[in-house]
Amino acid sequence: MKKNLITQLSLLLLSVFVFVACSSKQKGDVSDDPKYADIANNIFFTKAPTYYYEYTQQKAGGKTGNFLSSQNGMPTAKLIAEIPVRSHVHISKVLEVPQEDGSVKVMVTGKVFPNPQSSGEEYMAILEDIKPALELNK
Asked: Of 17, 51, 69, 136, which is the most exposed, with the fewest CB atoms less than 10 Å away?
């Protein structure tokens, strides 16, 4: 049952990621909104392992993108790297993405720095997914 729930959450995460990554416009940029002032254009340490994945749409000519997640073992994505604790995550943009059911998902984009010598890897993530892995109160 737990594995089924994780699989369903993984598929939901990937669905949202694909929706945002494949849209040519990034409408919903709310980086300047005061309610996101504490995270937009800031750098945070990781307090738990995070995972850097590559995902390619399954349809012909599908787009490829990278995303960051606190979930280990995404069945439909390729794990590129496990990001260790105390790594840096830069959140450069905050996006609000309206969903079909009327809710809004908050997505973030930026770079993750797995070690001090790294030039950073670009990512996209669902904020609620990576939030538990970040030290946001410092």
From this structure: 136
- pLDDT, one tens digit per residue, over 37-94 is 999 999 999 999 999 999 887 777 778 889 999 999 888 899 999 999 999 999 999 9
CA quadruple 119, 124, 129, 133: dihedral, nearest 10? 10
3-state secondary structure the chain: CHHHHHHHHHHHHHHHHHHHHHCCCCCCECCCCHHHCCCCCEEEEECCCEEEEEEECCCCCCCEEEEEECCCCCCCCEEEEEECCCCEEEEEEEEEEECCCCCEEEEEEEEEECCCCCCCEEEEEEHHHHHHHECCCC
